[in-house]
Amino acid sequence: MSLFVPKSDDSVIVRGAEAEVVGGAPVGVQLLADRSAAGGALSTVRVTLAEGADGARPHLHHTAAEMFYLLDGTAEILSGDDIVTAERGDLVIVPPDKPHAFAAVPDATADILIVITPGIERFEYFRHLQRIRVGEATPESILEVQERYDNHFLKSEIWEGRRG
Q: Each residue of 36-53: b (16+ CB within 10 Å) or e?
């Protein structure tokens, strides 16, 4: 087992009211702390999903684990070949190289704190997704930045077939 030691002795304080938010309904992402702000230790965002909204399609990270903590609501989380239904207060940690995805269940919203460790610069990734949403970038452009953000998309029949 290895221990990652952050490269900073400074505390990181992020005021929720001052944090940048990208997107909105049906998916809003509050950018809390990126790798550079946290000395490399982690990256963290808060994702709010409208009823049944998809948060992220199936993907994996080669170098980082991803933690999902349900602040409120109910979400489906793909972890490998399993789909876990997580509710308020539940925690799911997906290790590196394990396929995962998440979405709010059809009749519920979800409010999720997501932490990736060790950190990956993710803020520009979420800004890129927003540019795709508003038509400033093509959907295919996300494939060009997979390596930069250690975010590798894949197919999952289990995920695609979950809602019949």
A: ebbbbbbbbbbbbbeebb
Pick from 118, 113, 145: nearest CA to 129? 145
- Phi, psi torsion values for 17, nearest 5 degrees: -70, -20
pLDDT of residue 9 exceeding 90, the answer is: no
> Six-digit token pair at 104?
């709010």
Q: Which of 64, 59, 62 is nearest to 80 (CA)?
A: 59
Q: How far apart are CA 103 and CA 78, in angstroms?
A: 9
pLDDT at 2: 46
pLDDT in tens, 95-123: 999 999 999 999 999 999 999 999 888 89
Rounded Cα–Cα distance for residues 139 and 44 (Å): 24
Residue with tokens 């927003």: 130
Two structure tokens written together for 46: 């808060």
Secondary structure of 28-75 in the HEC alphabet? EEEEEECCCCCCCCCEEEEEEECCCCEEEEEEECCCCEEEEEEEEEEE
Full-model pTM: 0.90
